[in-house]
Amino acid sequence: MSNLDMHDWRMQTVVSLLERAAPAKVFTVWNGDDRLEAVQPGVASWPAPSLAILRGTVLGAADAAVFVPAPARFTFRGETRVEVPRDQWRPLRAEDQLDAVLYLGPRSALKQVPLSAGICSDPPYIEERLRRIAVTGIPRAEADRVTQLCASVPPKN
To answer: At 129, which helix (H) or strand (E)?
Structure first.
């Protein structure tokens, strides 16, 4: 995840590019989970699914890192990707990054759907997915999960 400094093209997100190119604003919804409870007690009692608009709420005032946690943030110095120390992370209110959260219930109640044989039999897709996991700083466990899910999928006929 970038340190919220979009000066370099490599720091741009799909949303920032779309908003610059199009006259309409992108409505961004985050898939909320148990982490919401730390900011907004009582979320666990919400019906699943629930959609909550963030602007002007306790959830909206929370730092976006609560919603989209990242093990690291980075910037670029020339061609080199440089990790930003945690004490230099820029704060960003969730409502300035996201428009709403979709609460689907506690993580313990959610089921992971395995990747399909079609996706797993597409090496360029899997290679790109693993590359994106690596460059965004997502924990290695996610790459391992993708690899394991594809290993468990029977080959496509």
So the answer is: helix 123-136
